[in-house]
Amino acid sequence: MIAERDEPSSPAKQRMRADAALVVCSLLWGTTFVVVKNSLAHVSVFLFLAVRFTLAAVLMAAFRPRALRRLQKDELLAGAALGFFMFCGYAFQTAGLLYTTPAKSGFVTGSSVVLVPLPENQRTSGDGNALLKTQAIEVATFRSDLGYSDGRRPDEVRFSQDPREDVARRDFTINGMMLDPVSGEVLDCVGGRRDLEAGIVRTIGDPELRFAEDKLRMLRAVRFAARFEYVIEPQTLAAIQRLAHEIQVVSRERVREELTKMLTGGHGRQAFLLLDESGLLKEVLPEISAMKGVEQPPEFHPEGDVFVHTLLLLENLPRPCPPTLAWGALLHDVGKPATFRVAPDRIRFDDHVDVGVKIAEEICARLRFSNHDTAQVLALVDNHMRFGHVTRMKESTLKKFFRLPGFDQHLALHRADSLASHGNLSTYELIRTKLAELPPEKIRPTALMTGIGMATNRNS
Known about the structure:
Low-confidence stretches: 1-8, 40-46, 66-72, 94-113, 122-132
Number of strands: 12
Largest sheet: 2 strands, antiparallel
Structural class: mainly alpha
Number of helices: 23
Strand order of the largest sheet: 1-4
Distance between the termini: 77 Å
CATH superfamily of the largest domain: cca-adding enzyme, domain 2
Mean pLDDT: 77
Shape: globular
């Protein structure tokens, strides 16, 4: 019997097999690229490229199917040309990566860099034992920025070999120093070390030009001065006062983040005094600026007006302070300026809590707080006066009060509020005693029946 011979495959099937083979080779090529690059990270660029070309040739030869041999001459030529251009692209890519990647000494071999240390990373195994402790380094090339038409991002960036050009685009002298990690030499061409020792926040070059490049720098100057207990250099402060109205072009989210850092950094009072002095406060938070000069009844607030009281309260916040607590503290009396009146017996602020909640909600919306944070800030404003009624509350009402979400923040606000006014902490201590006496299951008792249980009983 004569065995039948298989019919030769059609050209379409041959091409399909060839395509499948190329896909397999591409996947293997990508895997090999990662393995070889990681294992030969410190080998010269030419040896690395030679290894890659050799492995690519071996892979293409090993996995080339018969279908490739049956292709027409023009198809083979086209595939060869495509492969050549792909290999050229890989070669240029590899050369670029190697010439912009730290070599054995930890520095780039083809250009200058700025090395910025980042927080340490601790790698651990699954059981928590430390495997490797490394210091992360952020690498960036020197550059100069040209034009800031939007008051934030440069219109054009040019890379440079001169570190002085890179420093010239930065904000303040105390941020304009560089350290050579090899020699340990500090490169300071803007007087940053002198200002650091003297405790001065000064812009690099013309302050109006620096603030025109990024308006947010005005708020950063205030934050740095408050955080480190520095002073703002007179010309820098004068420029902020002239340009304060231009802070309106900055996105509300960026403004919120800077203000939050001021409030939670432990120097909120000094920060808001500087905001007021610089003219920025009435631009970013006019509702807080309106507190100045609003008198309070001296029998309850011997410390002074609403603005003074609010800033004293910020000094008594816990450290670290949750952002929602800090904002709740700042806004807790924001309704007082609008409700101020002098009654026959004393100064009064009728319904200042309800008015304050509405104003606080407007501020949170304007600064684009999340829904969760807005709810907590409004709750702090809405409930801060309830502590005055604690001694008259029934136990059931008191437990309900304790069940407020984030009650620890409510209690912390009450403590700071008391210290910033009359200084009487008797209610605060009473609540702490009650919380210690009441077991958690008494404050939040377990439900006798859940919705699922009720549905089960109803259907049984």
